[in-house]
Amino acid sequence: MSVRVAILISGGGSNMVALAKSMRDGHPARPCLVLSNNPSAGGLAAAREMGLPAEAADHRRFGADREAFEAELQRALDAHAPDLICLAGFMRIFTAGFASRWRGRMLNIHPSLLPKYPGLDTHARAIAAGDAEAGCTVHEVIPELDAGPILGQERVRVLPGDTPENLAARVLEREHVLYPKVLRRVAETMRASAQ
Ligand code: GRF
Predict the structure, then answer these.
(1) What does the angle CA 173 – CA 179 – CA 184 come to, to the nearest 5 degrees?
(2) Cis peptide bond N-terminal to 149, omega within 30
(3) Kindly report the CA angle at 65 between 59 and 66, in degrees rounded to 5?
(4) Helices (H), the chain
(5) pLDDT by residue (tens digit) across 4-56?
(6) Which residue's CA is minimally distant from atom 9 of ligand 1?
(7) Residues belonging to the active site
(8) The pLDDT value given to residue 174
(9) Backbone dihedral region for residue 91 (phi beyond 0: left; psi -120 to 50: alpha; all else: beta)
(10) Which of these, 142, 149, 179, 181, lies nearest to 14 by C-alpha position?
(11) Does ligand 1 have an atom closer than 6 angstroms to the CB of 42?
(12) Three-state DSSP class for residue 60
């Protein structure tokens, strides 16, 4: 019995593609849905090209009513019955209620070596601080932003003359290695505990 994984995106979905491509052959998990808050997210087209169910719940339809947006997300999720959610470039912040509902079953990838640099502009902040290293983190999602238990990290050196853009590109390459590795480990644990 495979672990059913819903992948939430907001943009290009390169992490979604890496995750979906990793869930093949003997992998304990399978992608069951790609869901975006942004109907024009490039990742939705990429998901469809891979033959995956791809849907959007446009957060702009709900204004400041986060609960109503999350209820729409939940309706889409319920139709595909995921065991696990992977946030992959998903740029909306959840209410404590939604994060608590999925606690222990929702992962996120963040482009910094947490607990350093939660939030945005992580690479510019690492460069400005003169850090020797940057990187990415996969963590469990809890109500506090970018603060859940860390499940894995990948590090890259910050090079002289690095711009946020080229540092981000190097980190993104490591994200595509880290996230599938952590997902496999989490899915194996979930499947073992379900037996
Ligand atoms: C990545 O840097 C990821 O760490 C952040 O969103 C960026 C874009 O991700 N959360 P993707 O290409 O849409 O997967």
Answers:
(1) 135
(2) no
(3) 65
(4) 14-22, 42-49, 66-78, 96-101, 122-128, 164-194
(5) 999 999 999 999 999 999 999 999 999 999 999 999 999 999 999 999 999 99
(6) 89
(7) 110
(8) 98
(9) alpha
(10) 179
(11) no
(12) helix
Which pair of structure tokens corresponds to residue 118? 């939660």
Q: Is the CB of 134 under 6 A from ligand 1?
A: no
Low pLDDT (below 70) residues in the chain: none
> Two tokens at 2?
């495979």
Position 1 scores a pLDDT of: 84
Please tell me if the CB atom of residue 109 comes closer than 6 angstroms to any atom of ligand 1: yes
Q: How many residues does the chain have?
A: 195
Tokens read off for 129: 């601080």
| Cβ neighbours of 3 (radius 10 Å) | 23
Measured from the CA of 11, which atom of ligand 1 is nearest? 13
Say what the pTM is: 0.96
Structure token digits, residue 174: 């490591």
Give residue 132's Cα distance to chain centre: 25
- The per-residue pLDDT for 91 is 96
Which residue has the CA at smallest separation from atom 10 of ligand 1? 89
Per-residue tokens: 61: 């339809």
